[in-house]
Design a protein that fits this description.
It contains 16 helices and 19 strands. It is an alpha/beta fold. The strands form six sheets. The chain has a seven-stranded mixed sheet. A four-stranded parallel sheet has the order 17-16-18-19, sandwiched between helices. Strand 6 and strand 7 form a beta hairpin. It starts with 14 loop residues before the first strand and ends with a helix. The protein binds iron/sulfur cluster (SF4) (3 copies). One iron/sulfur cluster binds next to strand 4 and helix 2.
C-alpha cells in the first residue's frame, strides 16, 4: 500500500535497466471494442488463458471454436507506435498452434497487413498454414455485438471484398511498448529515450547495452521488442560490460575519461558546448583578488570523469590543454606519433592514419583477417574517437616526418559515442588543410575518410589514395629542412 512505501538510498556503481516491455491496451480505439466486449482480448491475455488451460469465451464460459486475430493493433500506426513491434506476428502464430493442439477443428483467421516473422519462426508460420490457419490480407472494418454474439466485418484486400463473421473470440496483436515509468526515470538516470519511448542504445552496432549515462546499462525489451533468446544475449552482453567496468571493485577504480586541471582552464566553454555527453559544466567562481567588479566572476569548467565516455573531443578542442584523457594525454599521443614515425623521411615517405578505436577498428580487423593488402609505408595509431585528433596532433605528425596524414572515421550520424566526434574531426582536418595551404605546404597532405565498421575496401582505398599523394607531393619541407619559421612557431 502507499503507507508502506519508503524511500531508501543505496550506494551503487551501476544500474541495470532490465524492465522488459508491456503490451499496448487499445481501449481508446473504438473500432476494436477492447475493454467493452469481454470476448475481445490481446495476444498476451490469450497466452495467459492457454497456459492456465482455461480457453473459454470470457463473456459466458462457452467453448471457443472460431477465432479471429487482428495484426498490427497500435503498431505501424502514426498515432500510437510508428514502427513494427516485431514480436506480435510470431505471438499470433504460436497461439494459433496452441489452440489447434487443444481444439483440432478450431477455425482461426489471422487478418494482417504483412506477416513479419524473423529467423526460424518462418517454419512455424509454414506449419500454421499447413494446419489450416487462414491468413487474410486486409483490415478490420468494425466489431459490434448483436444477439449475444460478437460480429466482425473485415475487408479482404486480395479478393477486394467485405465479409461479416461471428467469431467466439477476437484476439488483438497489440503493439509492444516500453514499460510505464521508463520516460520519467530517464530524467533521474540520465539515459536518452527513442521516439517510441524505448531506452536509446549508445551505439546500435557496437555499444548496444550502454546508455548515454555511464554505469547505466539497458538490456532486453526496454530497449526494443526482443524475443527471449535475444534478451538473454543482450543480458549477457550487459553483464560482460559491467564486469569490465567493475573489475577494479567499482567504476571509480578503473575510470577512463577526461580529467581537468582547473588552473589551466580559461573558461572558454568549448568543452561544455561540444561534449556529446554533456559532461563538462561551467561553474561560476569568484576571483577574490580581482578588483574589477566585472572581471570578478569567472566561469571555470568542471568534469565528472565517471560520467565521461572518454572520447577526447573536449581535449582536441581545449585551447589550453586543461582537459585531457587520463589514458591518452597530449604528451602521450605526441610521444606515440614520434615513435611511430621513426625512420620516416624523403627516402621513406610514410602515411600516418589515426583511426577510431570503436568503428574503423572493425574495418581494419577485417582487412587483417581477409589478408587484404595495403602499402607497408602506412602507420596506424588508434584513438578513442576521431574527434580526439586535434589540429596540433595532425601538425605534430607532419613535423615528426609523416608525408601524409589521414583520419579514418565513421559515417555522418554514425558516431559511436552518439554525438558528433566525426564532425569535430572533420573541422580539425579542414582547418589543418587551410593552415598547411597558408604556410606554403599542400593541404592535400591531410584528409579524412568515412567508413562503416565493416567496409575494408573503403579503408584500403583511402590508404592507397594517401600513399599515392605522398609520392606525388614528394618530400615535405620538414624532410627538406626548409620548414624554418613554421617549425619554430609550432614549438
Ligand atoms: S510483428 Fe506483425 S503484427 Fe506486429 S507490428 Fe509487425 S507486422 Fe504488425
Ligand atoms: S572526453 Fe568526451 S565525453 Fe568526456 S568530457 Fe570530454 S567530450 Fe565529454
Ligand atoms: S575547453 Fe578547456 S579552457 Fe575551455 S572551458 Fe573547457 S577546460 Fe576550460
Amino acid at each position: 500500500t502507499e503507507d508502506d512505501e519508503e524511500e531508501k538510498s543505496i550506494e551503487t556503481s551501476a544500474i541495470v535497466m532490465a524492465t522488459g516491455f508491456k503490451e499496448f491496451k487499445p481501449t481508446m480505439i473504438d473500432e476494436y471494442r477492447y475493454g467493452k466486449n469481454p470476448d475481445v482480448l490481446t495476444q498476451f491475455e490469450l497466452s495467459c488463458m492457454l497456459s492456465e488451460g482455461t480457453l473459454a469465451r470470457p463473456s459466458d464460459g462457452g467453448e471457443v471454436k472460431d477465432i479471429v486475430m487482428v495484426q498490427c493493433v497500435g503498431s505501424r500506426d502514426e498515432e500510437y507506435k510508428r514502427d513494427c513491434s516485431k514480436l506480435c506476428c510470431t505471438f499470433a502464430i504460436d497461439n494459433s498452434l496452441s489452440i489447434i493442439e487443444r481444439v483440432p477443428d478450431a477455425k482461426i483467421r489471422i487478418i494482417y497487413m504483412d506477416i513479419r516473422v524473423p529467423f526460424e519462426h518462418e517454419m512455424i508460420y509454414k506449419e500454421s498454414r499447413d494446419k489450416g490457419v487462414d491468413y487474410i490480407r486486409g483490415r478490420i472494418s468494425r466489431i459490434w455485438e448483436k444477439d449475444g454474439k460478437t460480429h466482425v466485418q473485415f475487408y479482404d484486400s486480395l479478393l477486394n471484398q467485405y465479409f461479416e463473421i461471428t467469431p467466439d473470440l477476437v484476439v488483438l496483436s497489440s503493439a509492444i511498448l516500453p514499460p510505464d515509468g521508463t520516460r520519467e526515470l530517464s530524467e533521474t538516470l540520465g539515459y536518452l529515450i527513442e521516439d517510441d519511448g524505448h531506452i536509446k542504445e549508445l551505439y546500435g552496432k557496437l555499444r548496444r547495452t550502454e546508455t548515454r549515462r555511464r554505469g547505466v546499462i539497458a538490456v532486453g525489451g526496454v530497449t526494443r521488442p526482443q524475443f527471449v533468446f535475444e534478451a538473454v544475449t543482450d543480458a549477457q552482453a550487459g553483464a560482460l560490460m559491467l564486469h569490465t567496468e567493475l573489475q577494479g571493485g567499482s567504476i571509480e577504480g578503473v575510470a577512463r575519461g577526461a580529467v581537468l586541471d582547473v588552473d589551466d582552464c580559461v573558461g572558454c566553454s568549448l568543452c561544455a558546448q561540444q561534449c556529446p555527453r554533456g559532461v563538462p559544466l561551467m561553474i561560476e567562481q569568484t576571483d577574490k583578488e580581482e578588483e574589477d567588479e566585472e572581471q570578478k566572476f569567472i566561469f571555470i569548467a568542471s568534469i565528472d570523469t565517471l560520467l565521461c565516455h572518454a572520447c577526447g573531443v573536449c581535449q582536441s578542442l581545449c585551447p589550453t590543454g586543461a582537459t585531457q584523457l587520463n589514458f591518452l594525454s597530449n604528451d602521450q599521443l605526441w610521444s606515440e606519433i614520434e615513435a611511430t614515425l621513426e625512420g620516416a623521411g624523403p627516402d621513406y615517405p610514410i602515411t600516418l592514419c589515426f583511426y577510431c578505436e570503436e568503428c574503423s577498428v572493425s574495418t581494419i580487423d577485417i582487412v587483417g583477417t581477409r589478408k587484404m593488402n595495403y602499402p607497408a609505408s602506412t602507420r596506424l595509431i588508434p584513438v578513442p574517437c576521431a574527434g580526439r585528433v586535434s589540429i596540433i596532433d595532425i601538425l605534430k605528425a607532419l613535423e615528426s616526418g609523416a608525408s601524409t596524414v589521414m583520419i579514418a572515421a565513421c559515417e555522418t550520424d554514425r558516431c559511436h559515442i552518439g554525438g558528433t566526434g566525426n564532425e569535430i574531426a572533420q573541422v580539425q582536418v579542414d582547418v589543418a588543410r587551410e593552415i598547411l595551404t597558408a604556410i606554403g605546404w599542400n593541404g592535400e597532405r591531410v584528409d579524412m575518410f568515412r567508413m562503416f565498421s565493416a567496409e575494408p575496401e573503403r579503408f584500403t582505398t583511402a590508404i592507397n589514395e594517401m600513399v599515392k599523394r605522398s609520392k606525388e607531393l614528394g618530400p615535405t619541407p620538414v624532410h627538406k629542412g626548409t620548414s624554418g619559421k613554421w617549425m619554430e612557431a609550432s614549438k
